[in-house]
User: What shape does this take?
Amino acid sequence: MDLTTDISYLKGVGPQRAQLLGRELGIFTCNDLLNHFPFRYVDRSVVSRVAEIDTDKDYIVLRGTISNMQTVTNGHTVRLTAQFRDMSGTVDLVWFQGVNWIRESLKPDTLYLVMGKVTTYGNTLQMAHPDIEPASQQDKALSHPFIPIYSTTEKARNKGLNQKGIARLMETLLEQVKGQLPETLPADIRERYHLMPREAALNNIHFPRNNELLAKARERMKFEELFNMQLDYQYTRSLRLNQSQGRVFDTIGEHFNRFYNEKLPFELTGAQKRVIKEIRTDLKSGRQMNRLLQGDVGSGKTMVALFTMLMALDNQCQACMMAPTEILANQHYNTIRRQTEGLGIAVELLTGSLKAAQKRKIKARLAAGEIDILIGTHALIEDDVVFQQLGLVVIDEQHRFGVKQRAKLWAKNTIPPHVLVMTATPIPRTLAMTLYADLECSVIDELPPGRRPIQTLHATDAQRLRLFGFMREQIAKGRQVYVVYPLINESEKSDLKDLMDGYESIRRAFPLPQYGVSILHGQMPPDAKDYEMEHFKSGENQIMVSTTVIEVGVDVPNATVMVIENAERFGLSQLHQLRGRVGRGGEQSYCILMTKDNLSSTSRERIQTMCATNDGFRIAEADLRLRGPGDIQGLQQSGMLELKLADIIEDEPMVKATRDEVRRILEEDPQLAQPDHYMLRKHVAQTVHIEWNKIS
Ligand code: ADP
Ligand code: MG
Assistant: This one.
C-alpha cells in the first residue's frame, strides 16, 4: 500500500464508502485522505456540564451516563433515543442509523464521553449521532487529548463518516504507512527553519499529543504547502526563461535618443528611469520578457511603455499596444502620435469601429512593415492581423484581458514578442509574490512631481445641495467634474435608470447655455461616445455623467472633481481607480463619495479607508482584508484559494521565506538534479504541465 493507492483499498473503506469519500469530500487516494487536515481540535480534557451547554458551539464534550434507550418505529424509519445525564442535567440522544449496533454496545451505569453538537428541540437539548467513547479510556485521552474535527457533509456523516469515522480511517492509514512517509523538504531548509520532520508532522496534525507539537506540525505542513506552490510557479517560470528564445534588443538608437532629447516634455521620475532600466536589461538578455508593470494611476506608465516601444523600433521591430476599451485606445493613439510627431514614426490605430476598407488598408501596411506602432483594442488579436516583425506587445490594464487572449497574440509569432503588461490595480505584495511568481515585476512607486494629493470626502443625500454648490464653485474656476454611477451589470435596467435620472437632475441644476453636461455609458453607439467624450475633453462641457466606462485610463487633466454615487456599491480598488481620473493636473482635486445614510460596518470601514489614504497599495491590502481574496481579479484560477492551511495574508513572512528559498534553489540547481532535490523534482514532474502557448 502506498499513498497513490485508491482509497477503496484502505481497511474500513470499501467501494461504497470510497464513492462517498470521493463525491462528498474529494478524497480519492490515500494521499488525499492524509491531506484532509482537521480544521480544528477539541480538547477532551475540557468537559462541559449540561447546565452550561452553549448551543452555538459546533462540538462539545460531555461526561456522564446513558439510560432509557428506546427504539421507535415510525412507518419505515427506525430511530433510537436515549437519555444522557450528568450531575447538572439531561440531553436527549438520537440515532437514525446503526440503531441495533449502538443499542447493543452501550451499557447502563458506565461513564461515557459523549461528543458532538447540541441543538435545542422544543425545550429539550438534543444531540444527534454523538461520538461516544468510554470515559475509562483515560490513557488514550491523556496521550492524545485532542480530538481532530474534520470537515464532512451531511450525507457522509449519515453513512458513518462523522468525525469519529474519519478519525478512525486516518488512524488506520497512518498505521499502515508508518515509516513510509519520506521527507520532501531539503535538509538545510528543514534545519534553518526548525521544521518538524514530515512523518511526525502528519501524525501530529491529525492526532496531536499536545499544543506545542500541534503548532509545530501545522507550521511544517503550512511551510510545505506554500513551498510547493512557489515551486510550481517558479519552476514554470524558470523553464520559460531557459527554454524560450527572445529577440535581442541591444541597440539604443535614433528613435529612443531623439525622443529623449527632443520630445520628452518633462523629466522622468526616478521610478520611471529605474523601470526603463529593468526593461532594457530584459530586452538585451536573449530571453523573452514577460514583465508586469505596476504603478498607481497617474504614475506615468504610458511613458514607460512608449520608451519600450521605441527600443523595439530601434531594433528593427514593430510594437503594438493593446487597450481594453476604444476610448482608451483612442487616447493612447492621440497621445503617442502627438508625442512622436516629426520623428518619422508611423503610428496607427486599429479598433472594431473602423470601416472595413480602413481596416484592410492598415492590415496591408502592417504586413508590409510600413507601420511601426499599432495601437488598438481586441481588434489587434483577430486572426488576419499580421505583423511583419512584431517585437513587443504592451498590454494596458491587464485585468481586463484574459490569459487566452494574450496567448493568441503570442501564438501568431514564431519568435515570441516581448510582453509588457501594465496595471494600475495595485496587487498586495503577498499576492504579487504568489500570483505573479512566474512574472517579473516592476513597480513605479513615485508620482510625477507637483501632484497634490486628492482630498476625499464622504457625503450623503442630505448634503446634495452643498455638493452642487461646490461643483459650481469649481466650474467657475474653470475646472471640470465627473459624476459616476455604478453600472455593475450593463444589462441592469435599474442601474441605467439611476444614471439617466442623475443626468436629468444634473441638467436641471446646471442648465444650458451656462453649463454643458456630457453623458457616457456602455450601451451608447461608438460615435455617440466619441462625441460626448470630445465635448468634455475640449472643455466645452464641464460635467461628465457616466458609468464606470471612464474607470480605466481616461486623461483629462483639467478635471478636478470626481463624484461617485452609491459609492458603497463599488469595490475599493475600483473606487481608487475612479478617483485616479482626477488629480492629474497641478490643481487641488477632490473625490466625493456619496452613499446612503446607514451603512454596514464593512461599508463604513471601506469608505473611511478611501478618505484616509491615496496609496493604492494600502487600499489593495485593505480590500483584500475586508473582502477576502475570493473577490480579487484573476485569483480564482490561481489555486491560491485552495490553500488548506496557509493564509496568504496572515502568513506573509512565510510566503516570502518560501519564495526566496525556492528562488535560491532554482538558481543553484535549475534542473533540480541534486540528490537533496530529488523529491522536489518528483513533485514538479507531477504538477507542472507547461502549456507553451500561454503567456503567463
Ligand atoms: P498611468 O497610465 O500610469 O495612469 P499616465 O501615463 O497616463 O499614467 O500619466 C499620467 C499623466 O502624467 C500624463 O498626463 C503624463 O503625461 C504625465 N506624466 C508622466 N510622466 C511624467 C513625469 N515624469 N513628469 C511629469 N508628468 C508626467
Ligand atoms: Mg494609463
Notes: The pocket of adenosine-5'-diphosphate (ligand 1) is lined by residues 266, 268-269, 272, 295, 297-303, 424, 448, 555, 584 (CB under 6 Å).
